[in-house]
Amino acid sequence: MNIDIQLQKKVEQLGLSDKAAKIYLYLLEAGGDYPSTIAKEIHISRSTVYRILTELSVQGLIVEIEKEKKQFYQIEPPESLLRFTEMKEELAKGQVKQAKQVFPDIEELYNSLPHKPKIRYFEGLKNIEKILDDQVSQAGEYEIMGWGNITALQMQLRDGVLERYFKKADERPIKTRVILAETEEESVFWQDLYKKINITYRIEKKMISKDQFPYDCELGIYGENKVSIINAHPENPNGIIIEDKILYGMIKMVFDFFWDNLPE
């Protein structure tokens, strides 16, 4: 029997696995069947079929009856699928509530780990945008410092991402110092940025030659203890955020040394 793939995908979105959805729709179309026949018709192992049938029975989506002294399964009325979805929604709400209750204890334990840098890895352009958002979302007044090739990053990100980044920074008590690769594209980027956004705070910039910074990446230092690295390589954009006061302090010291020795 051929199962409607599009309908199967829709049933999966209600919370069933692909195999469970396939078995459910098979029973719907067949009007019911024996486990051995189900396994044969939809090409799923008999042991897996038995396991999933038990799960669907517990979830109230199918019913088991005895027919010719054998186990026979058929679906409950379709309303049961709606009740199942509503139950999962209520369960999810309960889990969110429990997570919020336990979060302070988990966060306290997480933050108490001694001398262990916290490292988060991000892959893909959308996730890289989370790094930029983190840079301008720290509490209180702080400074963002870093080296970067802004135009290389802009070419990879969606339109408007960097404009929103600088606009959000402008709305916060954030100071910015950046060392940038000097290119014609870089100059055009900043001219366009100032036309699009009325930035009220001063972004301090110092330039170095493209030969001195030939990388399509951005290294940021921000908040109280965070260092971020974004690789804007078009084939594999990725990045990391490291939380560690010692590493933060060391890289900030290197940045300040470069900054102080570069011409205005």
Question: What are the key terms here?
Answer:
264 residues; alpha+beta; Arc Repressor Mutant, subunit A; Endonuclease, Chain A; 2 domains; seven-stranded mixed β-sheet; two-stranded antiparallel sheet; 10 helices; 50% helix
Give the rounded overall mean pLDDT. Answer: 86
**Which sheet architecture does the biggest sheet show?**
7 strands, mixed
| Low confidence ranges | none
How many structural domains can be distinguished in the coordinates?
Answer: 2
> Using only CA atoms, what is the Rg?
28 Å
Shape: elongated
The CATH homologous superfamily of the largest domain: Endonuclease Chain A
**Which structural class best describes the helix and strand composition?**
alpha+beta
The CATH architecture of the largest domain comes to 2-Layer Sandwich
Please characterize this protein's 3D structure.
With 264 residues, the chain is an alpha+beta fold. The chain folds into two domains: 74 residues, Arc Repressor Mutant, subunit A; 144 residues, Endonuclease, Chain A. The chain has ten helices and nine strands. It has a seven-stranded mixed beta sheet with strand order 3-9-8-7-4-5-6, sandwiched between helices. The longest helix is centred in the middle third of the chain and has 34 residues. It is elongated and about 90 Å long. The protein starts with a helix and ends with a helix. The mean pLDDT is 86.
Helix/strand layout:
Layout: H1 5-12, H2 18-30, H3 35-42, H4 46-58, E1 62-67, E2 70-75, H5 79-112, E3 118-123, H6 125-135, E4 142-148, H7 150-156, H8 161-170, E5 174-182, H9 184-196, E6 203-209, E7 217-222, E8 226-231, E9 238-243, H10 245-260
Parallel strand pairs: 4-5, 5-6
Antiparallel strand pairs: 1-2, 3-9, 4-7, 7-8, 8-9
Helix pairs in contact: 1-2, 2-4, 3-4
